[in-house]
Amino acid sequence: MDSARFALFVKQDCQTCTLLVPVFERMRESLPDLAIYVQDDPRFLSSAGAAYDKTLEKSFRADIEITPTLIRMTGQSETGRVCGWVRDEWRNITGIAKLGQDLPAYSPGCGSKTRQPGVWERLVAQFGDSQLKSRPIQIDEWDDPIEACFDRGWSDGLPVVPPTDERILRMLSGTNRRPDETIGLVPPDLAECTVEKVAINAVMAGCKPEYMPVVLAALEAALDPLFTMHGLLCTTCFSGPIVIVNGPITRAINMNWGINALGQGNRANATIGRALQLIIRNVGGGRPGEIDRATLGQPGKYTFCFAEDETDPAWEPLSVSRGIPSGRSAVTLFQGDGIQGFVDQKSRAPEELTRSLAMALTAVSHPKQAQTANAILILSPEHYSIFRDAGWDRTRITKELHAALLRPGRDLIVGAHGVGEGIPASRAEEMVPKFWDDGLLIVRAGGSAGMFSAICAGWTGGRARGQTKPITKEIRL
């Protein structure tokens, strides 16, 4: 019959462990097959023959969560484990009747060093089965990993975070989805993209793990056939994906919908949109100068992501207007250009502001084009308050804007007013709408001071109404 062996895992930086030093010394006298592993200070219990678990490999392989932890082994099997100090349990597992007689009956212990932030993923990468399938790239000891990422074309022109195994594993902890789950085929190369590949690019973009569900939902929206990501890539227009986030997750990950919501300074806003762009580049092969044929492009092709302001309970969020149940989180992906600023500091009635906004919205793509592109109208709080105080909701604002945007076809036809651009001459006698019925999306965002709103013109592919549309996807963990 195999005799019992014992393994004890402790930390010097643990009040319970230091309290139990007399217990450990007594156990060393009574249990010849006792191995003691110290996680932090090699001097701690050195007189009792403790070993320094410098790499934490012993603690990792024993799956230690609490110090102290005492494990009894019989043969190759674990036959007992005690976490923290529970006097009666330590006596039972060791067979030492009066162990810890002068000490409290209970002391909870501390968290194992293996469970400190960032440590566990590193240990899994080094000693465990990480189950990562992507091919690792070996970087020479003297090479700069950031420069290596540049050299391999993995960057959008800005430095990326090198995707080490531990960083990838940490990013994967932000979702319940399996690393090997396939999200879809990413254009233009139609390369398979797994959750693991998403995590790699989210690392490079600078995301936190809690952003992963948003990045995954944004990618799912981009891969919806009606989003036509391949067409958006190869167009010579300015457009790229604009990510609008709604629901409780915007607060949970501290997204910005207020001051400078469309600008720099918020990590979630900046890195979620960037992660999507890096996936398209690094997995799908959508690189500028190759399949990406934009004549000029726009800065939003680095990243364009923000949250909607949902602080007014009377306002229907964009996601709800597009079919997502209230209280749930979602992303809406829009094929859009950069920002066209709108300044009106004098209108005070909703009718005035509507006519003013309509004048600005006619400029989308070109003042003489109609039903060729969608648009986003981003209402600032001060402009929104004019509508709110008059009792206008999303439906009313949208309806009135569409009505204000109807124009005589004779003013828009090719050649009218000495301008070659325009709609076909056959529509001269029509009253022509600027957008399709579902082509104008209204979102609330921005700081509380300043009567400045914004318009984001859509991709001219929007003229093919049934073939390309903005896409909204619910976010799931």
Brief digest:
With 477 residues, the protein is of the alpha+beta class. The protein has 16 helices and 20 strands.
Explain what the structure shows.
The chain has 477 residues and is α+β, with helices and mostly antiparallel strands. It has 2 domains: 4-116, Glutaredoxin, CATH 3.40.30.10; 216-474, no CATH class. It contains 16 helices and 20 strands. The chain has helices at 15-19, 21-30, 57-61, 87-94, 119-127, 145-151, 165-172, 195-205, 212-222, 229-234, 249-252, 267-282, 318-321, 350-361, 381-389, 394-404; strands spanning 4-10, 34-38, 51-52, 66-67, 69-74, 77-83, 85-86, 106-107, 110-111, 182-186, 191-194, 240-246, 305-307, 330-343, 375-379, 407-408, 431-432, 440-444, 452-458, 471-474. The strands form 6 sheets. Strands 12, 13, 14, 15, 18, 19 and 20 form a 7-stranded mixed sheet that branches. Strands 3-2-1-5-6 form a 5-stranded mixed sheet, with helices on one face. A two-stranded antiparallel ribbon has the order 4-9. β5 (69-74) and β6 form a beta hairpin. α5 (119-127) packs across α7 (165-172), α8 (195-205) packs across α12 (267-282) and α9 crosses α12 (267-282).
